[in-house]
Amino acid sequence: MSARAVRKISESELRRQRECAARVREINGGRAAPALAYVETYGCQQNEADSEKLRGMLLDMGYRLTTDGGDADVIVVNTCAIRDHAEKRALGKIGALKRVKTARPECILAVCGCMPQRGAVSETLRRSYGYVDLVFGVHALWRFPELLESALRRSGRVFAVDVDGDGAAIAEGIPSSRAGGVKAWLPIMYGCDNFCAYCVVPYVRGRERSREPGAVLSEARELAASGYRDITLLGQNVNSYGSGGGIGFPELLRRVNGIEGEFIIRFMTSHPKDAGDGLFCAMAECEKAARHIHLPFQAGGDRVLRAMNRGYTGSGYLALVDAARRRMPDIVITSDVIVGFPGERREDFDRTLELVKTARFDALFTFIYSPREGTPAASMDDPVPGPEKQAWFGELLAVQNAISAEKHAAHVGGTMRVLVDGRDNGGGGDGRPVFTARTNGGRLVRVTGGGIGGGDIGRFIDVKITGSTAWSLTGEKKELQ
Ligand code: SAH
Ligand code: SF4
Ligand code: F3S
């Protein structure tokens, strides 16, 4: 692939944003009570990472963060467009916020993220959601201070949706506010160039562009030094990191691994067409790299994979799974699959079932195909009725749940090292506190036991596994001998 220059937002443009932030801070400083802000996030980890930046910028503008929109002076809904259901949920939330806006007209209601990047949706927001003050797309995230300042000065509704314009730009140095202090998202690239036939991401997130290794490494160093124990490198297809020139993903992984500190490195997502032994070798070599790969297969039949524009076959995918397990026998493999892609027939779906039975994933994220306007799949013939797709979906879920349950049950009685990341608010039912933790492979463990306490959050501890379901493990903290 030829080198493509990635435009960086210039220092003077970023300075202008900091000046806007300072003016908003001044407005907030003059209030009797502290100004409050609330951010609600839908969608993937990329959106979570964007919300952390929104929170970082809000803190910088003098807001305090709240966990509920009811009393906030600024409410931001960061939306996802991946499936119809995701859009409906976000629109439902925006609809419900009309009540808040009517009761307190001075509060600012903002909608951002992937949904406004779709022309039709941003038109709907303009026409039918007149009470939304500010609408901006993913490419305008770094301009949030300027946009919020305009909204505060009440010069009318503010729209900043740039469907393709700045799609190839990268803004560095935006403040980020990460919750919890244990886990951190670290975007290494943005956008996607793969154009899988069903997927809206390349249209809403723009062209693929990688951050410079130096920028990624210095952020990773800061995170490790601040005590983050679980760092996830994010991109829609991390395996094509640096494809515009520069180091590739395996080398980036090695360099992050070289950073001092006790932390786990995770990454997602890997596209099978660009994954291979180079990646598995690097993972096996790097002691901080989690023994986990999320490798979406989407469909088992070659006819469907071709129509999806995925660039691999079912047997090619299984060969990859074998190669990963040869290098790392204990690797946890998870995947995504779509049921009911246009034109998928029962015999194609049977290939998906076979692949799932052969690969024996530790966990599988299953989706029913949802047409996305403007993608090639949306205009393909789709004769299979919804209830039939739903029945296939149920069949697939039953097969996978049995596999996940078996794989989890095999750990009962053993000891696993886990990173404790929070308190489980549900509790154990017997009054004892329950904490949540993740194994190196990313499995959820609910931990009880006399010895565990709040001081364990952010620590690696050994846990005796006492029970399991298809979705999680339970365990007790092992006391020091
Ligand atoms: N970049 C990642 C995934 C991003 S979207 C990758 O390539 O793996 C997360 C998952 O949503 C996808 O893996 C796919 O399984 C699912 N998905 C994407 N578009 C969809 C659609 N139109 N209908 C149903 N599921 C979809
Ligand atoms: Fe969508 Fe495919 Fe890109 Fe993933 S790789 S974001 S599924 S187009
Ligand atoms: Fe959704 Fe946008 Fe992520 S569409 S899945 S939030 S990239």
Model description:
It is built from 14 helices and 21 strands. It is of the alpha/beta class and 481 residues long. The protein has three domains: 11-160, Rossmann fold, CATH 3.40.50; 183-409, Alpha-Beta Horseshoe (pyruvate-formate lyase- activating enzyme); 415-477, OB fold (Dihydrolipoamide Acetyltransferase, E2P), CATH 2.40.50. The chain has a six-stranded parallel sheet with strand order 3-2-4-5-6-7, sandwiched between helices. A five-stranded mixed barrel has the order 17-18-19-21-20. α1 (11-29) runs parallel beside α6. The termini are far apart. S-adenosyl-L-homocysteine binds at residues 82-83, 198-199, 201, 236-237, 269, 271, 296, 298, 336, 338, 367, 369-370, 372.
Give me the secondary-structure topology.
Elements: E1 7-8, H1 11-29, E2 36-41, H2 45-60, E3 64-65, E4 74-79, H3 84-96, H4 98-103, E5 108-113, H5 119-128, E6 134-137, H6 144-152, E7 158-160, E8 169-170, E9 183-187, E10 189-190, H7 201-205, E11 209-210, H8 213-225, E12 230-234, H9 249-257, E13 264-268, H10 277-285, E14 292-294, H11 302-308, H12 314-327, E15 332-339, H13 346-359, E16 363-368, H14 386-409, E17 415-423, E18 435-439, E19 444-448, E20 460-468, E21 473-477
Parallel strand pairs: 1-8, 2-3, 2-4, 4-5, 5-6, 6-7, 9-12, 12-13, 14-15, 15-16, 19-21
Antiparallel strand pairs: 10-11, 17-18, 17-20, 18-19, 20-21
The structure holds S-adenosyl-L-homocysteine, iron/sulfur cluster and FE3-S4 cluster (F3S).
S-adenosyl-L-homocysteine (SAH) is lined by residues 82-83, 198-199, 201, 236-237, 269, 271, 296, 298, 336, 338, 367, 369-370, 372.
